[in-house]
Amino acid sequence: MSVRSARWLTVAVLAVVLVTGVRPAAAAPPDGTMVLGLHVTLVSRWLDPGETEGLITPFMVLYALHDALVKPMPAGIMTPSLAESWTVSKDGLSYEFLIRKNAKFHNGDPVTAEDAKFTFERYKGASAKLLKDKVKEVQVVAPNRIRFVLKEPWPDFMSFYGTSATGAAWVVPKKYVEKVGDDGFKKAPVGAGPYKFVSFTPGVELTLEAFDGYWRKTPSVKHLVMRTITDESTRAAAVKTGEVDAAYLFGGAVAQDLKRSPGVRVAAPLLYGIYWLDFLERWDPKSPWHDRRVRLAASLAIDRKAINEAEMLGLGKEAGGFVPPQFDFALPIEPPPYDVKRAKQLMAEAGYANGFDAGDLTPLPPYTSLAEAVGNFLGEIGIRVRVRTMERATFMSTWHDKKLKGLVIGATGAAGNAAARLEPFMTKGGMYAYGSLPEIDDLFQRQARELDRKQREALLHQIQKIVADQVQVAPIFQQGFIWGIGSRVEQAGAGLIQGFPYAAPCEDLKLK
Fold first, then answer.
1. What is the pTM of this model?
2. Could you tell me the residue range of the domain that residue 472 belongs to?
């Protein structure tokens, strides 16, 4: 490890001082109430599945407030939920879902096929264009039966519709939304999930109450509160004093301190979340990042092992591929070696022996320390960056609108398969794609039409190989998402759903 890296790790350790400092005692939550300390700022659009981003973050709210026809659950990545079952026609052109008779919204209205159709038609979140381009017609076969008819067989339909790759299957009540409008729905949402809406202060707190009519079971925790505490040291202190029952996302030094704290335990589910360095300006022929040698140099300059140890106590995994290895059709790719000597040679070959000013490095909030570490590693080969921090909602909209410049540390923990992970970031028209390679676009369209599984796998492997060979991005790690859990909690929901970072299923949460 380099001297600069060691200094960065030393600075991280000093963060413990902030956590262990004197803090006034705080009142524990009332009996029957579980409080979750969030690492991100709560925004109103997460209350509406119709605007779901191509990231996993909104699902921390969706799993509590809403429900989907099919969604990832402990039983599997595509578990029947509001739909008790679904069938696929022999020709692969239609998917029919049977909705549960006892499924209902918080206002008492039954969940119907009309609601599911309305939900799909109003959906404008991640991969909305792709889904709607592929679907020819949505038919209400009966009050409890809905059929999606495709324009042509598309084997990825359920990977996009029935997982957290999108929010298209999370059903909202048609009559209520039409009555109050989209803005009114965000202010007072009505869902079909285990918890119903009580109150929301944007950027501060969301309060929910157990819904005794939830089809799966009534939650034992009567009130669920999600509270924004963006400062890591404050979040850790809140766990230790009992102000919150569980909190998300702690770095190595703070997590080590939590492990030593009486009455606190640490959990670290391994997520589907891959974090990567994205070269947004690689599409500009005048940019240094247009040169593959420069992108490869940047990748080789990153000490992934050191980052894993410092950020996640070594509980994450160093990443070589853009697609999580657990996904269907994932191509196994070894992490690039940490090789500063080779990186400097590549920089010299590209004409940048003295380095260059790369401008802003903007991380997905709140991963500032990760950005600082990556910035330090890049600095060792002469690539000078300025770490730029943004509020999360602003970052997401700016990223989506293609207005970010320089470098980004991106991430997503959404489920699906290799195609679902690649589409938003690597294909033409993808929600977060600033450009695309024609050969990738061609292969992606071919795999979407290919019905032979082995042929599809070969095509998707080709795409992933191109992404790696061309250093479209520099994967950094697969995240071990560290929680702090207080003494009142019997079941926090950490890791119950494979690859999911947050408390879920919310109806399974338990207090002692």
1. 0.88
2. 271-480
